[in-house]
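Researcher: We are triaging several targets before committing to wet-lab work. For this one, the compound of interest is zinc ion. I'm pasting the protein sequence and the ligand SMILES. What I need is the predicted three-dimensional arrangement of the protein with the ligand bound, expressed as structure tokens, so it can go straight into our comparison scripts without reformatting.
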Amino acid sequence: MQRDRYYTIGIDIGGTKIAFALIDDKGVVREDKKIPTRLTGGSEFIQNEIGGQVNSFIQKYGSSIMGIGLATPGYIDPVAGVVKNAVNLDWKNVHVIDVLKNTIEKPLPIYLQRDTAAETLGEYYFGAGRNCQDFVFLGIGTGFGAGALTSGHLLTGSHNMALEIGHLSVDEKGPQCACGNVGCIETILSGKGLVNRAYDLFDASHDPNYEKIKDSITARQILSMAKAHDPIAEELMRKMAKSLGFVCAMLKSVIDPERFIIGGGLGKAIFNMLTGEVEEEMNTHVFKLDDRPTGFYKSSLKTSAMGAAAMVWYFNNILPNSLKNKN
Ligand SMILES: [Zn+2]
């Protein structure tokens, strides 16, 4: 029987959009689609929009589909299949697996994980973490998230919250965070954080050129400004590199990974610009006698839904063809 005739469905449920992908076991995306997230829909949204898309895959690919992986932000219970609290989705105690199981036309195993944990698995099976048993994935997007594979196992912790470090407060004099604390990692290492810090500096400069743009500034614009050597944008990039270097030093000391994989929209955008500085900063914090090399890699997943799809392989304990005949 040909293994490459098996497919998995990945669904990455984000605050603004939902990414679907149907991929084969070589990691080739056969179909993908994005739809906007309707925040107030709850169960009805899962039935109609998500269930509807899954059913259209089932009608087309039938018994070749092995299962479904669901990735969501927030605090989840993967065993019960419940999203307990996802602020970005406005979901509280949503029994997402049960609702989807009752909606789809064919019984299929469904797995649930936090989005960064799913992306970590995606990198392992199909991306920059292929054939690497120990790595840390850092997702810098609207927010900040991390995941890790240690000795080939997904690090989950006792409450499935391992490496949920975006709101770890690392600077008691740092800026106020939306979570109520100060100096959280996310206050600089995220699109939202970067924009807020730019606003603060533009505002404090009293420079009319900055005043004009401060209310509509985006992370992408700040990056372009840094490339054009704008002093405030360059200062922000240095802050990001310093902060990311510190986070990497902390994780290197705790987890001892072979690689750091930098993903997320903003993470990928700053990768070439900042990796040298990040590595330098990391090395100033770690144990000086520690000369273990740690590589920096850019995420290479085509869509975040590939991570969700990778869960099906991981939790079924089956090696996809993308990992065979390697090494
Ligand atoms: Zn916070």
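Researcher: Any quick observations?
Model: The mean pLDDT is 91.
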